Amino acid sequence: MDLVTISVGIAAIGYGMYTAWARRSQPANFWKLEPMKNFWGERGGLAVHFVGYTLIPIVVGILFVLSGLRGVSLF
Prior knowledge:
By secondary structure, the protein is mainly alpha-helical. The protein contains 3 helices and no strands. Helix 1 (about 5-25) packs antiparallel against helix 3.
């Protein structure tokens, strides 16, 4: 079990969960969201932002936690 890898994974999951919450409750805090909406449209911009800042960090975090539990080290 590698605690550093698990910690990084937990941090990534936390970041993804925070962005999911904050995008709904405080969308003005995301300065990249409006340009994405302008470029790709309302739904496309939200989708790209969701994938890049919520979905990918959560998935990567889960993979890091599982890898850390197996003993794989990030560094």
